[in-house]
Amino acid sequence: HFTCNQGVPVIDACSALVSAPDIELTPLQYVDVMINGKVYKALSDSGAQIPLIRSSLLSSDISYVGNINLKPAVGNIIPAKLTVLDVAKYDESTESGDPDVTQAPLHLTFAVSDVATSDVVLPRSIAKRLKSTSHKCKQFCVNVDQPSFNLCIIL
């Protein structure tokens, strides 16, 4: 049992003398993205390992390519399905001829679940890669029934 100056238990006497450090909250970072022709505000998460989208945002005829178990920072493992989607940065000011926009949308495998607190969650590395994409790009990819084969079309 630890004691302070006058022999009073630490918890009772010293807790008032020791100030706690300020709480530092890092603001959440978001990026506007277009997925399946709709715009979403995606959370850029430095701890995420795979893109995640709410299942309620997808059509009922979406094709799945597999399953995954998601391990959140807190709580139990969450079973989810996997699907492939095209995602691009959404920016009203981006001109289709912008020299910094060099890539078509990213063709990514997403975990699908309604447990997430955000509609779309992207690993920070993917959010950074989106900077060179545009929703105005004339290329898109579609899934063929085989998960390892994708057909990319330039309009």
Account of the protein in words:
The protein is mainly beta and 155 residues long. It has two helices and nine strands. It has a six-stranded mixed barrel. Strands 8-9 form a two-stranded antiparallel sheet. The protein is globular and about 60 Å long. The termini are far apart. The C terminus is likely disordered.
Brief summary of the model shown:
With 155 residues, this protein is mainly beta. The chain has 2 helices and 9 strands, in the order H-E-E-E-E-E-E-E-H-E-E. The protein has helices at residues 10-13, 124-129; strands spanning 29-35, 38-45, 52-53, 66-70, 78-89, 106-112, 120-123, 139-143, 150-154.
Distance between the termini: 75 Å
Give, in order, the helices and strands: HEEEEEEEHEE
Q: Radius of gyration over alpha carbons?
A: 23 Å
Biggest sheet: strands, sense, closure?
6 strands, mixed, barrel
Feature tags:
globular, 2 helices, 9 strands, disordered C terminus, 35% strand, two-stranded antiparallel sheet, six-stranded mixed barrel, mainly beta, 155 residues
Chart the SSEs and their pairings.
Elements: H1 10-13, E1 29-35, E2 38-45, E3 52-53, E4 66-70, E5 78-89, E6 106-112, E7 120-123, H2 124-129, E8 139-143, E9 150-154
Parallel strand pairs: 2-7, 3-6
Antiparallel strand pairs: 1-2, 1-5, 3-7, 4-5, 5-6, 8-9
